[in-house]
Amino acid sequence: MKALAEVGLPADLAAAASSTEYDDALRESDHRGMDPVGADVGTPVIHVPGADGEPVAFFGPVITRIPRGESAARLRDGTLLVTGTPGFFEIKRTRTEDRILD
């Protein structure tokens, strides 16, 4: 409850953690997000326009620092460029730095 108070949220939200009231809605939301990308990925998952303009889902992008301004725009534009390429499925490499959370 301390975390809720620190961000200005009501303490009674903590009850949702042990409630089953929202389970069906959470499962439905998870399926809407994850089913289009398939079973052999994790998160993050994004849904973007594909080559034919129809939505397609991908795992990623996985980044170690938060892009801002023009850098964020380039990441978005590049993501849309590769995901809009027919037959595109994946780009991956080993991480060479830890997360930077500032």
Considering the chains and any ligands shown, give keywords for the structure.
3 helices; single chain; 2 strands; two-stranded antiparallel sheet; alpha+beta; extended; 102 residues; 10% strand; 31% helix
What does this 3D model show about the protein?
It is extended and about 45 Å long. The protein has 102 residues and is an alpha+beta fold. The protein has three helices and two strands. 1% of the residues are buried. It has two domains: 1-35, no CATH class; 39-102, no CATH class. The chain has a two-stranded antiparallel sheet with strand order 1-2. 31% of the residues lie in helices and 10% in strands.
Describe this structure in a few short sentences.
By secondary structure, the chain is of the alpha+beta class.
User: Describe the biggest sheet?
Assistant: 2 strands, antiparallel
Give the tally of β-strands: 2
Q: Supply the number of structural domains.
A: 2
| Binned strand content | 5-15%
Query: Mean pLDDT, rounded to whole units?
Result: 90
- Judged by helices, strands and strand pairing, the structural class is alpha+beta
Q: Give helix and strand order, one letter per element, not per position.
A: HHEEH
The proportion of residues forming helix, as a percent range, comes to: 25-40%
Name the poorly predicted regions.
Answer: none
How would you describe the shape?
Answer: extended
- Distance between the ends: 25 Å
Radius of gyration: 18 Å
Q: Which strand order does the major sheet show?
A: 1-2
Please count the helical segments.
Answer: 3
